[in-house]
Amino acid sequence: MSGPHPDVARTRLAVRTALADLAPGSLVLVACSGGADSLALAAATAFVAPRLHLRAGAVVVDHALLPASASIAARAAQQCRDLGLDPVEVRQVAVADTGGVEGAARAARRGALEAVREETGAVAVLLGHTMDDQAETVLLRLARGSGARSLVGMEPVADIIRRPLLGLRRAQLRAACRALDLEWWEDPGNAADGPLRRADGEPLPRAAVRDVVLPALTRALGADPVPALARTADQLREDVWYLEDEGWALLARSVVGTAEVPGRPGWPAAVDVAGLAAAPGPIRRRAVRYWLVEAGAPAGSLAARHVDGVDDLLLRWRGQVGVDVPGGLRVRREGERLLLERTPARPVHREAPHDEPAGDGAADAPADPA
C-alpha cells in the first residue's frame, strides 16, 4: 500500500513537529480562510492532532471586504468540519477604514483569533504562513530600513501563535491540497491587480512584492531568491535573540536606586551612565529601547532617533536638556545617572485642530490565513 503524497507527508511532519511539545488533551485552533495554505494546514492538523492525543478546531475570520465574503467563510468552515475539526468558529470583523487595509485587517483578525482562543481555552493558534510569505516579509522590512529585529521575519513560535509551514513553499501546499481533493479559494486581494488597493490606487505592498518584485528578482538573479531570503531570516534570528538577552541583562545591571517611573509601578526611573556607556553599541541601544518601551513608550512610535538621542546623553553629553520620547516621557541626565520622567501634558488648542494624514496601506506582515 502506497503512502501519502510527498507534500502531504511533508505538511503532516511540519505540523507534528510544531505540536510535539503540547500536553495531551490540549486544544489547538487552525486559522483557516479556505485558501490553499490554510486548508492544507487544517487537513494536516486534523490528521496529526489525534495521533498526538490533542484536540483540534478552527477559526474562520470573515473580513467583509468582498461581496461574497460570508459565503466564502461559510464554505471554509464546512471544509474544516468535513476534515473533522471541532469546534469550528466563524467570526465576522469590522476592518477599520483608516490607515492601510492590510494592517487594519490583520489587527481585526488577530483580535478575533485571540477572542476565540480565550473562549475555547485553546493553547495555540496555528497560522499557515509559508516560506514564500517569509521571503516577502523580509523584503518589505528591508526596503523600509527596519532594524535587525524585524528582519528575522515571522517567528515559528510567538506566544500562542505557531507557524508550522514556514519551511514549505506555496506550491507544495497546493500540491498537498490537490492530492487530498481539497478545493481551495484564491483570494483576489492577494494579487497585485486585485480589488484591494492603497489609498493612492497602487497595489497593496505585499501583493506588489509577490507578483512584481520577486519575479523580477528571479529574472535578474537567474535563481529563485525565496529560499535564500527565508534562510537569512533564520540565521539572523539566533543572533538577534542573543543580543536581546544581553540587552535585558545589561539593563538589569544598570538600574540604580529604587525610584519608579510614574504610572509604571516597579519599573526603574534611573539607570547608571557608566555601565551603559561601557557596553557595546548594539547591546546598549537595545537596553535603552527596552527601558523606554517598558516605561510606556509605544514600540511602534519609538524611532531610532529617540534611541540615538538617549545614546548621545550617555556618550556625548554636553549639558543637553534631555530627550522627549513618545508616550509622554523624557530622559535627562543628572550626573552619572539617566532619569526617566513624565513630561507635562501639552495644552490642547481647540481653535486650530490638525488632522493626521492617512497611511499608505503599508504593512510589515502578510495577511494571516484566517
Automatic annotation (TrEMBL):
EC number: 6.3.4.19
Domain spans labelled tRNA(Ile)-lysidine/2-thiocytidine synthase N-terminal: 28-193
Basic and acidic residues bias locations: 341-357
Class in the EC hierarchy, top level: ligase
Any single GO BP term: tRNA modification
Subcellular location: Cytoplasm
Residues of the tRNA(Ile)-lysidine synthase substrate-binding domain: 272-338
Classification via InterPro entries: Rossmann-like_a/b/a_fold, TilS/TtcA_N, tRNA_Ile_lys_synt, tRNA_Ile_lys_synt_N, tRNA_Ile_lys_synt_subst-bd
One Gene Ontology molecular-function label: ATP binding
Reaction(s) catalysed (UniProt annotation): cytidine(34) in tRNA(Ile2) + L-lysine + ATP = lysidine(34) in tRNA(Ile2) + AMP + diphosphate + H(+)
Ranges annotated as biased composition (Low complexity): 359-370
SUPFAM superfamilies listed in its UniProt record: Adenine nucleotide alpha hydrolases-like, MesJ substrate recognition domain-like
Top-level taxonomic group: Bacteria
CDD domains hit by this protein: TilS_N
GO cellular component: cytoplasm
Region (Disordered): 341-370
Keywords assigned by UniProt, alphabetized: ATP-binding, Cytoplasm, Ligase, Nucleotide-binding, tRNA processing
Binding site for ATP: S33, G34, G35, A36, D37, S38
Major site of localization recorded for this protein: cytoplasm
Its biological purpose: Ligates lysine onto the cytidine present at position 34 of the AUA codon-specific tRNA(Ile) that contains the anticodon CAU, in an ATP-dependent manner. Cytidine is converted to lysidine, thus changing the amino acid specificity of the tRNA from methionine to isoleucine.
Entry-linked PANTHER family: TRNA(ILE)-LYSIDINE SYNTHASE-RELATED
Similarity remark: Belongs to the tRNA(Ile)-lysidine synthase family.
Protein name: tRNA(Ile)-lysidine synthase
